[in-house]
Design brief:
9-stranded antiparallel β-sheet; 29% helix; 672 residues; single chain; alpha+beta; 32 strands
Length: 672
């Protein structure tokens, strides 16, 4: 669903949540040693020796040393450190000195150094990524911050599984790190300006410039107050090479923005007395089951889309082994085989299967005599989209892609954008099997109606209270933190890092990135839809630019986009140096004709000329090869939909294997 890379520092600074690294080092520190502070249950303010301030996450052990502060995750196999280096020639030199102070054995040279704009009182920020072989299973990165002549460096090293699981906590430390005495920007107490013609024109100009920098072919955005839509437009083209323009009625896949509307369905059903937020899911749908009996019993309706149950992200089966003819019950079968990897309510872990189950449970309660797929679709049509006047929003993939629809795009290995109508659309169709998690399509004109409904706390445009304010707002109540002053509710996130509430959610599928948000104190809501994977780098800056215009904020959004555009180009170029587009002939000759994994199904190997293609059930891709530093070879996807996604060549019990991984799961394909 996005280009595969290991640029963890970049993802962390951008607030993303999809990671892959590798290897477990020795335990980074010994809790409760004389120089350590035992874990506290709550987040707490801390300082580095030079006085830089940050927030330490609850449950982590703090080890204080003369020039650094070390933080050890509860699992003990992942650590981070904040090192006050002082003067250094540049970020690379500062980072080398920081490793010497914390872990002298870490002498790998930087793979890539990319700049971020000055922020939070820092005059310079540089992200340092390192070459990590997939089989290491290790997270390794650094971020260097400069104030005046002095550098403070954040380092991280340890288990990739723990790093992914603890991403929100890692983000909390990084996002809260500031020079001593720096006062955060806040919009609290400021009077919001209306989005008049001049400010709207400035926002449009920002969009056009950002699309050009990021190589986004088409987009649409809309703005609303509590009273009405005040602006809606399309920009760019629906398909590269075709001059047909995007307009406000062009369909885009909205992916995880389906989740908020699915929980709106649940809120309506609570109003109707058909379920309760605090009711065990097994009472309303007895077939519901997770890989842990204890967790199953503890899951209430409110937990279905809370990202707080401890279940890890588990999307690989959707990516590679979706059955287009499977019934909705497949969601529940997969959940029954998924065990939690953290405690209930302990950390933010995003799980699409749980959100999918939420929608199907809602559809079942609304229309108990129908199969789960049709029941959910009918419930959304009749209880959400119909009453809100959303006539163009649909779960019908074929209907959405028949007329005025924006085609998906992604960057190829050349670094240039291209349509992904083959593998990309197969992937996007696969998500229709998981409806509420990300199966809907919509338009700017339609989706802004939902945003206005959120802004009006459950009132329709005619003033009628359709969903009670109490139950609508339950979806915004904090379930789990996702960073500094950011919490996740039920398919909705609330950010308070600027001193005003911003309620939002994003969506990501192959070639489609979107966001919806409201700023209640400014009487304003917005929608942004893009038809490019690079649209991900525009979502938060768009939200920031709106805040800048409304509250006279510092002009930061444009700089964020420019830095992201440079980073994206640099990452592809650097990885391209390691990949042979014409795969290694010996590696290709050694492949088995086919491989099988119990969870991800079959991969068929097809040789043609000098090339080779891997075909999975969901999608296929031509493959290149990559020689890893540990001596292993990976076959890597060349299709832009999953560019650089690796399968590592190996063997097991005398049979040839290919290994695919996400951060918390390993899937071994064995020759068949």
């Amino acid at each position: 669903m996005m280009r595969y890379d290991r640029a963890f520092g970049a993802l962390l600074l951008a607030g993303a949540a999809s990671l892959s690294f590798a290897q477990t080092p020795a335990r980074p520190g010994t809790p409760n040693s004389p120089a350590s502070t035992p874990p506290a249950t709550a987040d707490r303010p801390e300082k580095t020796p030079s006085g830089a301030t940050f927030t330490a996450p609850g449950g982590w052990t703090i080890n204080s040393k003369p020039k650094l502060v070390e933080l050890v995750a509860p699992e003990g196999d992942f650590g981070a450190a904040l090192i006050d280096v002082g003067s250094a020639a540049n970020a690379t030199a500062a980072t080398a000195a920081a490793w010497q102070a914390w872990r002298p054995a870490q002498t790998r040279p930087p793979k890539l150094v990319t700049a971020r704009p000055p922020r939070n009182g820092w005059e310079e920020r540089q992200v340092i990524d390192y070459e990590v072989s997939p089989n290491e299973k290790r997270a390794l990165f650094a971020v260097a911050f400069r104030k005046g002549n002095a550098w403070t460096v954040a380092l991280a090293d340890g288990s990739e599984a723990t790093a992914e699981k603890r991403l929100a906590a890692i983000g909390l430390v990084q996002q809260s790190l500031r020079p001593g005495g720096y006062a955060r920007e806040t919009f609290a107490g400021r009077t919001a300006h209306p989005m008049d013609a001049a400010r709207t024109a400035a926002l449009r100009q920002f969009m056009e410039q950002s699309m050009q920098e990021l190589g986004i072919p088409g987009a649409a955005f809309a703005l609303t107050t509590r009273e009405k839509t005040i602006y809606s437009t399309g920009l760019g083209v629906r398909l590269l090479g075709d001059p047909t323009r995007v307009d406000s009625d062009s369909e885009f896949a909205i992916a995880s923005n389906t989740k908020g509307m699915a929980t709106l369905l649940l809120a309506k059903l609570v109003d109707e007395g058909k379920l309760a937020w605090e009711q065990p899911v097994t009472q309303v749908y007895p077939s519901f089951k997770l890989g842990s009996e204890q967790v199953t019993k503890g899951v209430l309706v409110r937990h279905l889309v809370c990202a707080c149950t401890g279940l890890p992200r588990k999307d690989m089966q959707v990516l590679l082994n979706s059955d287009p003819n499977a019934s909705a019950s497949d969601t529940f079968s997969q959940l029954a085989a998924t065990a939690p990897t953290s405690g209930f309510g302990e950390v933010f872990q995003y799980n699409n299967l749980m959100a999918s189950a939420a929608g199907y449970v809602g559809g079942h309660l609304a229309f108990p005599g129908m199969d789960l797929d049709r029941g959910f679709a009918r419930a959304m049509d009749e209880k959400v989209w119909g009453p809100l006047g959303m006539t163009r929003t649909t779960l019908d993939f074929a209907k959405a892609t028949r007329g005025n629809w924006a085609r998906p795009h992604a960057d190829a290995i050349s670094g240039e954008p291209e349509p992904i109508l083959g593998a990309g659309m197969k992937l996007n169709y696969a998500f229709t099997r998981y409806g509420a998690a990300g199966g809907a399509w919509s338009t700017a004109n339609d989706l802004i109606k939902y945003v206005r409904f959120e802004l009006n706390e459950g009132k329709l445009d005619d003033g009628r209270q359709y969903v009670s304010s109490r139950n609508l707002l339950q979806r915004r109540a904090a379930n789990v933190p996702v960073g500094e002053d950011r919490v996740y509710g039920m398919g909705m996130q609330v950010d308070r890092d600027y001193g005003v509430d911003v309620v939002h959610h994003g969506g990501s599928l192959g070639g489609y990135k979107s966001n919806v948000f409201i700023i209640p104190s400014a009487n304003l809501g917005a929608v942004i839809l893009t038809n490019s994977d690079n649209g991900q780098a525009l979502l938060r800056p768009f939200m920031r630019r709106v805040l800048e215009l409304v509250y006279d904020g510092k002009p930061e959004a444009a700089g964020d986009v420019s830095a992201s555009a440079k980073r994206l180009r640099a990452e592809i170029a650097k990885e391209r140096e390691r990949v042979s587009v014409t795969p290694d002939a010996k590696a290709v000759a050694a492949l088995a004709p086919a491989y099988v994994n119990a969870n991800l199904g079959r991969v068929t190997v097809t040789r043609k000329g000098d090339g080779v293609t891997f075909d999975f059930r969901t999608m296929g891709s031509p493959m290149g090869t990559r020689r890893n530093d540990d001596g292993t070879t990976s076959f890597v996807a060349l299709d832009p939909t999953l560019l650089f996604f690796p399968l590592v060549v190996g063997s097991k019990d005398g049979k040839r294997t290919l290994i695919a991984r996400d951060s918390q799961h390993e899937y071994v394909f064995v020759e068949s």
